[in-house]
Amino acid sequence: NGLAEGQTPIVIGVAADSGCGKSTFMRRLTNIFGGDVVGPLGGGFGNGGWETNTLVSDLTTVICLDDYHLNDREGRKVTKRTALDPEENNFDLMYEQVKALKEGSSVSKPIYNHVNGTLDTPETIEPTPIIIFEGLHPMHDARVLDLLDFSLYLDISPDVKLNWKIQRDMEERGHSLESIMASIEARKPDFDAYIDPQKGLADMIIEVLPTALDPEDKKTLRVRCIQKEGVSDFAPCYLFDEGSKIEWTPAPGKLASPEPGMKLAYYPESYMGADCQVVEMDGNFDNIQELVYVESALSNTKTKFYGEMTQAMLALAEAPGSNNGTGLMQTLAAFAIRDLYEKKSAVAKAAQKAAAASA
Ligand code: ADP
Ligand code: G6P
After folding, report:
1. β-strand 150-156 against 130-135: which pairing, if any?
2. DSSP character at residue 69
3. How far apart are CA 131 and CA 359, in angstroms?
4. First-to-last CA distance in the chain?
5. How many domains does the chain have?
6. Who is most buried in 38, 154, 247, 308, counting CB within 10 A?
7. Judgement on whether residues 121 and 252 belong to the same structural domain of the protein
């Protein structure tokens, strides 16, 4: 398998509703980790027609939790439950397999086929140094949650979610507005009951809201990166001065922005009872290259050199969110995960060395 002698994987959970930008985030993450991608990229996460939902590179494996659906689409018609209902998901198997992978063992993972709505022949998954579990419920089961080294929740506000769904399902897939709204309505009770509460458990929440700069503007986004304090191997990113409360309108000559303009902020917040630090970006920017100006004001970005964040944004310039805070905060999250991985593997290596020396 892809692990060095004695190495154990770190496990990351990414929770979000479908259509909330998980695939895009995975692209940003794998872009930063590098390595040759040997599995399907794009299309595998909830919307593809691949024979597998799993994305694998030398370093990372991304497992889609839809694979742990208990029943197939026909089966859900019989039970009359949605895929968001925990009763429709096999948490015992999910737990066993997260645990096995984390211990360095391979597993035989089911495959949920999104095109046919069937459960296909399981596939063998070998552990890699980083394993990402993304989907509806990575934090729902306490046993699975306990195995996660870091957890992220992508919180897309209802208005924005509807806009994105319209863009994808209406413009790209030909669905009607009525059917999109009906499907959101039908899912809402289970979403509120089982998916949304996980954000209270996440180490980082990326919250996407309509802009606060102009009440008439329904397109521009305000994005908050809510970072929990006291998470091991994770120091929150901050703007200018740690612990301060800051509002910043960048000089337009240095960061050009279309209407309604651009505003950044940094402040402490108690989020669902937890002490957090929030970095916020409201508005779009015209030119990704000018992000170096914002990058110069941020600390604890976990980049290896000044400009690396801007470079990562440029590498995926065509991806959704590359002109606003969604791309920026997702990139910030990706660097935090890389840093966490490097810190944890350095500790493991040191322990191994010490053990070898005393043997
Ligand atoms: P998921 O994998 O969670 O289903 P995707 O990454 O495929 O979500 O995104 C679903 C759709 O939502 C995209 O096709 C795009 O239209 C829209 N979208 C996602 N992220 C953004 C973003 N940051 N800005 C604008 N639109 C986005
Ligand atoms: C996956 C997605 C869910 C979606 C389901 C469709 O599980 O993650 O968000 O609801 O597929 O299932 P359906 O019952 O509509 O076939």
Report:
1. unpaired
2. B
3. 31
4. 26
5. 2
6. 154
7. no
In a domain, 181, yes or no: no
Hey, which bits of 214-258 come out as E strands? 221-228, 238-239, 246-248
Q: How confident is the model at residue 36 (pLDDT cuts 50, 70, 90)?
A: low
Closest alpha carbon to 63 in 114, 21, 97, 20: 97
Q: Measured between alpha carbons, how far is 303 from 198 in angstroms, rounded to an integer? A: 28
Residue 46 clears pLDDT 70, i.e. is over it: no
Instruction: Examine the pLDDT at 42 and tell me if it is beyond 50.
Output: no
pLDDT at residue 356, as a whole number: 87
Closest residue (by CA) to atom 5 of ligand 2? Answer: 83
How far is the CA of 206 from the CAs of 164, 181, 202, in angstroms?
16, 24, 10
Is any ligand 2 atom within 6 A of the Cβ of residue 81?
Answer: no
Task: Tell me if 24 CB under 6 Å of ligand 1.
Answer: yes
Atom of ligand 1 minimally distant from the CA of 326: 23
Domain boundary among 93, 126, 153: 153
d(CA 244, CA 253): 26
145's CB contacts (< 8 A; 6+ apart) are 13, 138, 139, 151, 201
Q: Is the CB of 46 under 6 A from ligand 2?
A: yes
Per the domain annotation, does 273 fall within a domain?
yes
With a 6 Å cutoff on the Cβ, whether 18 touches ligand 1 is yes
Q: How far apart are CA 128 and CA 115, in angstroms?
A: 27
Give the pLDDT score at 151: 98
> Does residue 131 belong to any structural domain of this protein?
yes
Which of 135, 153, 171 terminates a domain? The answer is 153
Same domain membership, residue 252 and residue 135: no
Prior bond of 250 cis (ω within 30°)? no
Token pair recorded at residue 274:
């937890």
Q: How far apart are CA 235 and CA 332, in angstroms?
A: 12
User: In this predicted complex, what is the ipTM?
Assistant: 0.94
48 pLDDT tier (thresholds 50, 70, 90): very low
At 235 the pLDDT is: 97
The closest alpha carbon to 254, from 294, 213, 224, 300, belongs to: 294
Q: Residue 201 is encoded by which pair of tokens?
A: 């458990």
